[in-house]
């Protein structure tokens, strides 16, 4: 064959012969953009022909060509394009072949011969002719079609019939002003092989190598289930590699692509990059190699949806020696941002389909950002030792959601030393806001053993709980377990498919596949069945002959596998309890299923033995409608109730009568159907047994009323009144019911409906039996109020005692009076009180008592120590009054008040009647100075009186004491006496005697003074007062010196008698001081008293001393004892025999006498011997007295 220049187009002879039957001796040239070839004039003068690339392929000639009109004329003459090597000629007329010729061409097929050398000679096709006019670029030398069949609409899309059509699409997207075919539709009509040895230039690629961005495909491409295979890309520097390089706003669906893609980055079998596009139901096979972003289906996706796609292609990442590429590898997508990936599967189980790379590797996606991955499934090995992060589903999760995923593969490098993290589901979670449940849920592996690897690589594993639905399913794919805190809990309440379907429902996205059970119970693709609630009916479905299926109804949506037989169960919900009952039936042709897109619906037949349908391949809603099937007449009410009440009030003996009756009630009859011509009805009333009744009445318009004058009611009233006359205390309590029916009958058809009527009759007896009288159980009550005063009279403590409350009881007649309520009142509320139970009590703080007390205080103002004796009495009454009739009864109440004053007037002060007492002791010496006679003249005892104030003080007992008992003494009655023989006087005398011893003729001059204090103390309050006592001592020396007739005197004179000399001394000598009373008889003489005391002088002038004497005083003979000076002893006296006597110390006419018998001395009882046995008058000690009383060791009576 003749050599041709590269890119020169030659029209094969068989094309010309098939079209025109002419010799192929001419040259062919291409035309711009429309696949039309214009030939130059032949030497023989014959006209040229035009052909299309399609004509060279299958003999089909287009009906219209750009640049060619209906008359066969071509366009304007072309100018020579820069860089071309052909000379352009003007267009020539083209003959049109007949349809028969086309048919012959189709049937004959192509018989083109091979070129000698494809590198030297290219077949003269129309596409080559076109290419010869294009500028020499990356698109040079491509054989392609010159146009597409179809119109590019949804109804009539452009047809992709061959590899050249695909090349034309790729070329036009990159080179033509078609804007990526936005809004245009393409459809693959057959399987197509891309068997060229050259590397494929993707659809959506660069126009020139130096372009920075590719021109994306923007249309709709439907593969219709066909394959594109033998795809080959072998440029390792290439980005945007795949059947499609870049798609933007496009849709690619229902396509299988098989090939080898060996590029740099953004590489995938289907597409290198997807922007704002949808890829649906596509499959990738073969192998992808690169060093950047790689995916089995798509290399990189932005704002795109990848749905229902499957990958079995290997994704093999190499090493980026430059270090400038981020490596992301995924079975479906290398990296996705803002995208949606759902219902995708990646299976790389065979060695050819391995999935590995550096960087991030995931079974579905190597990396996701703000991307949702749902319903994914991965098998095979994921990752290798070269990876940094490996996840069974996602390598790196920056943000987004991964739910309803299953990983049945293996992690290829879980123990590699270079591996940073690996996870069963996610290798690395970058975001700190990713949460279990919200972002990660319903994820499962095919073995619990795989949980030796963390589910999420670097995070969240310890937080997994049952509610997050992270677990493993078993080999039968029916059973599963959930993971929590390092262990698994097998789930026995549902199957695994139900768990997955729950996850789908929770996701709630329309384009996520549902899950249904297969006949063996394992999960398969299902389609959602929704059933809305049905008025007056029930509706549910159940897959037939599937033991694992669940019933689906309005409350429990579910999914069924496509093609499965679905049994429908529907029934009416009748209202059998109404009168008349309402029954419902299925509206014909209302049971149907409707697809969710409303494009498809199908009636479900109900007139067969089984109500069923085959599940379609789409989500559906099943609906049904029911209608009432009544026919006749119905009443708006099935029952009427009337209440008739007779109300009796006022006095039972003469009651007032009133009535309370339910208003008339209207019944409305409805004729069914409403379209009936004759709606006339007749109303009547009957007793329940069918007999007539006068209790109820019905009007022509259906108004029903009750007759209160009915015989039945009147007889009930009469019986109640008669019974009350017998038992007047009882109310009439008549209650009764009667019944009837109101029937409506249609004039046409005699259809009937009835309303049941209940008449309730009762008598409300509000009459009362009036009160006739009231009486009290007591006519008089008495109360005593005692005021008691204790403590100090000037500031007493006051208390009151009051007679306890007294209860009055009323008696009302007649006893069966209805209103027995009474009101209690006190005649004088200040005096007494009464509560409403009849409890009466006196007021201790009443004003009248206070007035009595104040009056007494006023009277005693001048006598504050007077006892308080306020007292008095009052009278009042208590009245009981009936509320019914104001009947009254009265009880008199007498109250008395007294004061009991137990206070004491205490001593406030004490005083003495003398402030000072003076005493003198004078020693008188007479006779011979050498042997003087001494006498003493002493001031007699002086009594002081104590005055206690106030005079009303109850305890006026006082006690006297002397400060210096050697100076003076004081008796209990305040008698103060000076002691002549006091030591201070003896000291003065001794001193004087010493002086006289020196001068026996000197006069005695002893003299001096002494002072002391007598104190009186009250027993009550220990109040005191004092009296000063002064004692003067002097000596009067009246002795004479021997040889002189008279002696001198020291001054003063002495009174009293001599104590010695003459017969007196002899008598004293015969006295016995040791004997008791009765030892010495009486002697005649007389009683004498001087300042010292009493003494007795015999007739001879002598006196007794230191002895007992029985002497007479005032005609009474008593025993007396005299001291050694001759003075009479008083008070207590103990003799030498240790007997104790008591000598009366009181100056009452018997002073000094010896007491006998019982005597009270200083508040104590003593007993003194009464027997003259030598110890008469001696005190009994430690013995019993003659009258049987015991005295102690001190003689005191032991009480």
Would you give an account of this structure?
This protein has 1199 residues and is mainly beta. A hairpin with a 5-residue loop joins strand 55 (735-746) and strand 56. The longest helix is centred in the middle third of the chain and has 16 residues, at 711-726.
Please describe the topology of this protein.
Elements: H1 13-20, E1 28-30, E2 37-39, H2 53-58, H3 99-108, H4 126-133, E3 158-160, H5 163-175, E4 185-188, E5 192-193, E6 220-222, E7 227-233, E8 239-241, E9 244-248, E10 251-262, E11 265-268, E12 271-275, E13 278-290, E14 293-295, E15 298-302, E16 305-307, E17 310-311, E18 314-317, E19 328-330, E20 333-337, E21 340-342, E22 345-348, E23 355-356, E24 359-362, E25 365-374, E26 377-382, E27 387-391, E28 394-407, E29 410-411, E30 421-423, E31 426-429, E32 440-445, E33 470-473, E34 480-484, E35 487-491, H6 496-507, E36 514-517, E37 523-530, E38 537-543, E39 558-561, E40 565-572, E41 584-586, E42 592-595, E43 601-603, E44 612-614, E45 620-623, E46 626-628, E47 632-635, E48 639-649, E49 656-661, E50 665-666, E51 669-672, E52 681-687, E53 696-698, E54 703-706, H7 711-726, E55 735-746, E56 752-765, E57 773-776, E58 780-792, E59 795-802, E60 806-807, E61 810-813, E62 822-826, E63 832-834, E64 839-842, H8 847-859, E65 872-882, E66 888-904, E67 909-912, E68 916-928, E69 931-938, E70 942-943, E71 946-949, E72 958-962, ...
Parallel strand pairs: 3-4, 4-6, 5-7, 6-10, 7-10, 8-11, 9-12, 10-13, 11-14, 12-15, 13-16, 13-17, 13-18, 14-19, 15-20, 16-21, 17-22, 18-23, 19-24, 20-25, 21-25, 22-26, 24-27, 25-28, 26-28, 26-29, 27-30, 28-31, 28-32, 32-33, 37-45, 48-56, 58-66, 68-76
Antiparallel strand pairs: 1-2, 33-34, 34-35, 36-37, 37-39, 38-40, 40-44, 41-46, 42-43, 42-45, 47-51, 48-49, 50-54, 52-55, 53-54, 55-56, 57-61, 58-59, 60-64, 62-65, 63-64, 65-66, 67-71, 68-69, 70-74, 72-75, 73-74, 75-76, 77-78, 79-80, 81-82, 83-84, 85-86
